[in-house]
């Protein structure tokens, strides 16, 4: 629209884009209304990522510069995103060099922000659980412009992997439920709040005294006073310290005894000095 002094049009952006002059004055020709940041912020406000290297996502821009590779592609009604010429990867928008936020798309770094939450506890190298990938909880797009990746709602889509086929994420409470990886080893899997401060202690998912765990854990741990390491020697030591993180929370029953063998198929222990063949 035109009121005789100022102009309000799509080519000059709008207030929601964070520009300083979305309604320029026609008679002001000193160049201040055409600087980068006049029509939209540099960068625009959230949910736009806070990165200032436009070329990482927009192939028409020069690397670490506000100069255009192709001026004809600017203000043409099309948002040129990714594709040939774009220089950024996942980390451009998603946090630091390990791609797990300490910084989310809105620039938040506090673990109380849902975009940050427990990402580091899951994706950073761990001494007590197997490596977890982004694909464990999300469908990872093949490119930045893949359908459904940047759909404008600023909400993360949660799709769990094969370890948690019945897992559920409840956005209203930011909780994950029916999770094998937070369960106690039985059919009834666990529930965990995404904003829980970690790392979790041994016993947070399964009890250390065997109560409520599968099979004959209670009889062995409580009645016989056995240590976890006596049957899970490849995973934990005698002091319950995890010695091989890749074998912990990996979807398999890692049974290794000093003597005897365990059959996963029939859940039976054999060739043991402590008792004859028993079904777990």
Range of helix content: under 10%
Alpha carbon gap, first and last residue: 77 Å
Shape estimate: elongated
- What is the average of the pLDDT values? 81
Order of helices and strands: HHEEEHEEE
How many H/I helical runs? 3
DSSP strand tally = 6
The side-by-side strand order for the widest beta sheet comes to 1-2-3
pLDDT < 50 stretches: none
The largest sheet, given as strand count, sense and whether it forms a barrel, is:
3 strands, antiparallel
Features:
single chain; 280 residues; little secondary structure; three-stranded antiparallel beta sheet; elongated
Structure commentary:
The protein is low in regular secondary structure. Helices cover 6% and strands 7% of the residues. The protein contains three helices and six strands; from the N terminus they run H-H-E-E-E-H-E-E-E. The strands form two sheets. It has a three-stranded antiparallel beta sheet, with no helix packed on it. A hairpin with a 4-residue loop joins strand 1 and strand 2 (175-179). It is elongated. The termini are far apart.
Characterize this entry briefly:
The protein is largely without helices or strands. It is 6% helix and 7% strand.
Give a topology summary.
Layout: H1 90-93, H2 119-123, E1 168-170, E2 175-179, E3 190-193, H3 217-223, E4 261-263, E5 268-270, E6 278-279
């Amino acid at each position: 629209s035109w009121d005789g002094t100022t102009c309000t049009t799509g080519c000059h952006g709008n207030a929601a884009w964070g520009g300083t002059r979305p309604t320029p004055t026609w008679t002001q020709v000193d160049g201040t209304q055409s600087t980068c940041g006049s029509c939209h912020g540099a960068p625009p406000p959230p949910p736009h990522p806070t990165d200032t290297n436009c070329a990482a996502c927009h192939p028409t821009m020069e690397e670490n510069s506000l100069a255009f590779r192709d001026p004809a592609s600017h203000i043409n009604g099309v948002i040129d995103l990714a594709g040939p010429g774009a220089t950024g990867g996942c980390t451009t928008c998603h946090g630091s060099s390990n791609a797990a936020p300490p910084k989310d798309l809105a620039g938040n770094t506090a673990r109380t922000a849902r975009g940050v939450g427990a990402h580091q506890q899951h994706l950073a190298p761990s001494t007590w659980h197997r490596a977890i990938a982004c694909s464990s909880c999300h469908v990872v797009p093949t490119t930045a412009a893949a359908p459904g990746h940047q759909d404008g709602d600023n909400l993360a889509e949660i799709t769990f992997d094969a370890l948690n086929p019945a897992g559920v994420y409840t956005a209203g409470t930011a909780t994950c439920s029916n999770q094998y990886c937070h369960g106690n080893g039985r059919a009834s899997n666990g529930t965990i709040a995404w904003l829980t401060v970690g790392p979790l202690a041994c016993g947070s998912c399964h009890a250390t005294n065997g109560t409520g765990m599968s099979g004959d854990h209670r009889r062995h741990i409580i009645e016989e006073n056995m240590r976890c390491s006596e049957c899970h020697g490849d995973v934990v030591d005698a002091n319950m310290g995890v010695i091989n993180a890749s074998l912990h929370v990996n979807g398999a029953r890692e049974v290794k005894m000093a003597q005897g063998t365990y059959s996963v198929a029939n859940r039976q222990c054999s060739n043991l000095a402590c008792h004859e063949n028993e079904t777990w």
